[in-house]
Amino acid sequence: MDLSHIKGIVFDKDGTLFDFNATWATWAQTFLVDLAQGDRAQAAALGQAIGFDMASGAFDAASVAIAGTPTQIARALAPHMGGLSVADLATRMNTAAANAPQAEVTPLIPFLTGLKGRGLKLGVATNDGDRPARAHLDKARILSAFDFVAGSDSGYGAKPDAGQLQAFCKAVGLAPEDCLMVGDSTHDLAAGRSAGMTTCGVLTGLAARDVLAPMADLVLDSIAVLPGALDG
Questions:
Q1: Do 132 and 49 belong together in one domain?
Q2: Which pLDDT score, from 0 to 100, does residue 83 have?
């Protein structure tokens, strides 16, 4: 596919810039045990509620944690938590998530430096909260590479709606048709399509190629090969 017209790229974060399972599986086990105050059976029940298997340490492909917002994940946990409200759970999740170690899909500093060297405008649109998202980018020393960052609580809505992507276009002064949305979930691709962008799926999340392909203009193994795709 010819991508020579692309002037801006919006990336999803988890599963796109950072490998989803390598980043979140270990974190989820620790967080759920903590939430259950050490009760392993309760932690397993919490995991089941969000599509995470404590025994295997793996997320189900349909897990709400893959593309859901912290509030949506908290809603799934709340019925199993007694006194904790959805808002309290989302706050605890955001606080804990900000410290989650991130596993880069490819060395991100040279990758993003190369894209910036092409004159591209870069953004991040994630259904994670704004604070943990910026913390993750900052810890990877790549926050300054982005012209725009939006979380689900940044005031632009959340994917699959197009608000974050529309805000990116406005912030950097580009038309949607000159932009590429890159993500690992159908939520990412639906948002890109809705915004009028070219869409690129990547296989570093939990969705398979055949799941992403119907909504993607192209599907890549990972963002590591994106520069080659831009070169045609």
A1: no
A2: 78
For residue 100, pLDDT over 90 is answered with: no
Domain that residue 126 falls in = 8-18+103-230
Q: Provide the number of structural domains found in the chain.
A: 2
Does residue 196 share a domain with residue 171?
yes
Asked if residue 3 is part of any domain, the answer here is: no
Question: What is the SS3 assignment for the chain?
Answer: CCCCCCCEEEECCECCCECHHHHHHHHHHHHHHHHCCCCHHHHHHHHHHCCEECCCCEECCCCHHHHCCHHHHHHHHHHHCCCCCHHHHHHHHHHHHCCCCCCECCCHHHHHHHHHHCCCEEEEECCCCHHHHHHHHHHCCCHHHCCEEECCCCCCCCCCCCHHHHHHHHHHCCCHHHEEEEECCHHHHHHHHHHCCEEEEECCCCCCHHHHHHHCCEEECCHHHHHHHHCC
pLDDT digits (tens, 9 = 90+) for 61-84: 889 998 899 999 999 999 998 878
Residue 1 inside a domain? The answer is no
User: What pLDDT band is residue 26 in, cutting at 50, 70 and 90?
Assistant: confident
pLDDT for res 168: 98
